[in-house]
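User: Hi! I'm working on a homework problem where we have to compare a predicted structure to a textbook description. Could you give me the structure for the chain below?
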Amino acid sequence: MKRKIIAAVMAAVMAFLLCSCSFTADKDRIIDFFNDCMETVGMLRLTIDRDLKGRRVFTGDDAYEGTYSVQLDGESRQEVIFGGISVYERRIRLTADISAVSGNAVIIVQSGNTATGYSAGKDGKIDETALLNGNGYVIISYDDFEGEIELNVSIVEE
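Assistant: Happy to help. Predicted structure tokens:
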């Protein structure tokens, strides 16, 4: 299903680009159009709101930044909270307060084919920056986790 959607989006982009060849096309408009198409496809990987165990609020113009809060009682699962597919790089700041009663929770930042996991220190806090390029997501992985998590992801302006 996802491959069919991606193929349809790519076909639409290619048709647009071919039609644009006969006109004086603005390169930035073409890139923005392609990026909008890719971001739409990239949102398919996010865990949908009704399946999330907590509450997510997007605070930006896209799905890359926002807040997420959750209280769990012994869950083991993964949730894809923020991110997407884009032609633009984004530097994000990731802050989290993790109050664990038991189990483990790791915040994973996937950028392309690379995934980096962040665990809370003894104070229960995470404060990191990461570069998302292309295919980038913020994921929370729970392993028999009981406790609360407050997560904030924001774009770092360069």
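For your comparison, note the following. Residues 2-20 form the longest helix (19 residues). The longest strand covers residues 90-111. Good luck with the assignment!
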